[in-house]
């Protein structure tokens, strides 16, 4: 009986070891796949910005990344998916998580809008080359553009909802219209017009956006929107 019990314990131990090895191998493969995707994404971004979306073939991207074409197809499936990954990468490089925490930590309506304006500047400043790529890639990226617009609207709904609950919106301004106004102001095109057509610095754009949001949405100035 003792021997049978020992065998059962040994079998359980062996099973646990095999499961641990499989889990470790799966984790290693996932890390390797993530690194490969990162390498391919950066290579694609370099080529898209240098040669344009149409001229950058999967073969050229694979060569730039030092991988096979099949690896690119397996990791992404299409050039449009690569642009999506580039935009996501730019959001990470703009430190989106830290900005979300900062925006959430603000209580004063004007400071909430200022923080959002500064985040918008940081994101567009990091990703404007990728938006140029995305514009060239249309209509392949129409879905990505729509998703980005919808995501921005949801973020503004939450932000303006906070301001509305705090009594910070202008008298008679419905929250839905406030969201519409903020959504129109915070798109990529005003940023590109300001920094490219008008020659503004990104900092000047952020100041203008914070001031415009406050003028359009807030009941009364509670602090300098640029402080």
UniProtKB/TrEMBL annotation:
Leader peptide range in chain numbering: none
Residue range(s) of DNA binding per entry: 57-76
InterPro entries in the record: Homeodomain-like_sf, HTH-type_TetR-like_transc_reg, HTH_TetR
Pfam families tied to this protein: TetR_N
Alphabetized UniProt keyword annotations: DNA-binding, Transcription, Transcription regulation
Feature: compositional bias, Basic residues: 1-10
Spans traversing the lipid bilayer: none
UniProt cross-references to PROSITE patterns, sorted A to Z: HTH_TETR_2 (PS50977)
Keyword set includes DNA-binding: yes
Keyword Transcription regulation: yes
GO molecular function terms listed in the Swiss-Prot or TrEMBL record: DNA-binding transcription factor activity; transcription cis-regulatory region binding
Domain of life according to the entry: Bacteria
Domain HTH tetR-type residue range list: 34-94
Gene3D superfamilies: Tetracycline Repressor, domain 2 (1.10.357.10)
Stored SUPFAM superfamilies: Homeodomain-like
Region annotation Disordered: where it falls in the sequence: 1-28
Ranges of compositional bias, category Basic and acidic residues: 14-28
Protein name per the record: TetR/AcrR family transcriptional regulator
Source organism (scientific name): Ornithinimicrobium avium
């Amino acid at each position: 009986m003792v021997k049978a019990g020992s065998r059962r314990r040994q079998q359980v131990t062996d099973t646990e070891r095999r499961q641990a090895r499989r889990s470790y191998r799966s984790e290693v493969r996932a890390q390797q796949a993530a690194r490969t995707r990162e390498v391919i994404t950066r290579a694609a971004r370099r080529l898209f910005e240098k040669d344009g979306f149409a001229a950058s073939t999967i073969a050229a991207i694979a060569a730039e990344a030092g991988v096979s074409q099949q690896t690119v197809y397996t990791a992404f499936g299409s050039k449009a998916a690569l642009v999506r990954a580039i935009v996501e990468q730019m959001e990470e490089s703009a430190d989106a998580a830290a900005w979300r925490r900062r925006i959430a930590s603000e209580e004063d309506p004007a400071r909430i809008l200022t923080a959002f304006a500064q985040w918008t500047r940081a994101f567009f400043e990091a990703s404007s080359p990728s938006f140029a790529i995305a514009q060239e890639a249309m209509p392949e990226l129409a879905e990505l553009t729509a998703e980005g617009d919808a995501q921005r609207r949801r973020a503004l709904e939450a932000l303006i909802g906070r301001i509305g609950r705090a009594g910070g919106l202008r008298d008679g301004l419905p929250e839905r219209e406030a969201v519409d106004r903020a959504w129109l102001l915070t798109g990529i095109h005003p940023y590109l017009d300001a920094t490219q057509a008008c020659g503004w610095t990104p900092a000047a754009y952020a100041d203008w956006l914070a001031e415009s949001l406050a003028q359009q949405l807030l009941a009364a100035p509670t602090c300098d929107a640029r402080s």
